[in-house]
Design goal:
Order of helices and strands: EHHEHEEEEEEEEEEE
Number of domains: 1
Number of helices: 3
Distance between the termini: 8 Å
Strand content: over 45%
Largest sheet: 10 strands, antiparallel, barrel
Structural class: mainly beta
Length: 188
Amino acid sequence: MQTRPTNSTDSLYRQAMADEFHSLAPELQLFHSLAGRVTLPGRCTVKGPHTTIGRLFGKLFALPKATTETDFWFELDADTRQETWRRHFPGRSMTSQMRIRSGSLVESLGPVDLHFQLSVLQGQLRMIIQRITFCELPCPKFLLPSILAEETGAGGKLYFNVAATLPLVGILAEYRGYLDLEQAWAIA
């Protein structure tokens, strides 16, 4: 039996953003307050790497494969200490963990930790990369990928736009689309 998801007043993103959380679009506030295990349907388009090295990185970190607009599923397992995000793209699933460390939101993809500063501009969430560590060793600045991570909300949907490019390698992954918040269901 499917049930509606519950919300947390002390979610990870609320903790990381403090009062700025209330400046997010209502759809983003709803999504980033979800608690427990939740599944959401969505649609996305993915651009993949154009280089051999980029494709190797894609396999290593389970980055999504290139595809035209298609259905995909998002699973969230959230509590006040950590969130696990499972993105089920066609042909590949990508899992990461989010937590707060030293006041920053940290997303872990295997041995890589992405340290983000969160900001809001006209209701939109922007995740700005501050640093990256690999097995807890800092990545040299000249090797830092360029990462775009934005979310907007409208009409009961969370729209996302994510792109990662690496110097001398090019695109690692670029995906955009939406999650249908009105179709969110708790997983028992």
